Amino acid sequence: MGARRVLLIAVLAAAVLIGFVAVQNLASSAVYYLTPTEARERNIAAGTAVRLGGQVETGSLRYDPQTRDLRFVLTDGTTRVAVIGTGAPPALLREGAGAVVEGTFAADGTFRATQVIAKHDEQYAPPSPGATPSHQTP
Amino acid sequence: MIETTAAPFPTIRVRPWLGRLAVAASLIATFMALVWAPTDAVQGDVYRIIYVHVPLAWLAYLAFFVVFLASLGWLLTRRPWFDALAVASAEVGVLFTGMFIVAGSIWAKPTWGVWWTWDPRLVTTAVMFMMYVGYLLLRSLSTDFSRRATRAAVIGVIAVIDIPIVHLSVLWMNSLHQLPTVLRAGGSPSLDAAMGTTLGISVIAFTLVYFAFLAERISIELDRQRRTLEARA
User: Fold this and answer.
1) How far is A9 from chain B (nearest CA, A)?
2) Whether pLDDT at A78 is above 80
3) Under CATH, which architecture does the B14-180+189-232 domain have?
């Protein structure tokens, strides 16, 4: 009975710890990401880790599989940020669709992304006849 | 299904048909989700996990709301049946929450590109999960029936506030998780009619599963209550 009690307290402590981490992140996720305009207004310094959210500007998405160089422009309609990342983007990263990037600004004003996350909206609909779902088109 | 007899505790007869209905509905929902419902224009077939992820989430909300009502019931009436209902619903709620978090993670990797991120919806969901895990663990630490029930009931009444917070988090804050598709103000659900029908059937199936599990668990708890009472006598 004593060992069981210790185990229960340990699991309870772990749950409280995880809950605590979650609540801490809630405080910082009150600003989960900044829009490019907000980042500019707050004068985010080069080298400071930050998360930006916006849309992938149409015509700006480029990925070279040889060099694994990923480039696109993240925009909120007002401010544009040139994002440079490495590695294949998520399949749902599309021009005109949402994206969230984590990383830092470089001295030249471009954003060096360590993580690129695709964001999708809340609409669900079948493709028009003959069309292929977006994530399967290259 | 629920009968009040002259015995000191109301007895619940677990009807086999509740379980059978749940299985039948789940089979129908599975067919509709995997075969009948159309593919999504943006996500392809991976979106079909919505027919598991969303119903489980809604049923978890319902389960924790039932915990809230049952906790109030205990605090106001001190009838042990309410405590049995509270622990049963909390357990099913925790199970469903764990399941929809995993389903969401499986959905997130091929769509968002990450297994997890600390966006407001995921954070508040993790907090909700932890609170009700804490609720169950709190119960395990106490042996005195009345004290345990009262402590748990206090948590059960307070923790329910996280449910609207979880749902509204995507509306209040910048988040990665998209806005609600169905439970939203103004405008009809933003999904295709066939998808909506499939989602509705899935919700019915999971609701039957919830009630089947709940009935079983309440029955077990009432047995325990009876044995504890007899042991004391």
Assistant:
1) 8
2) yes
3) Up-down Bundle (1.20)
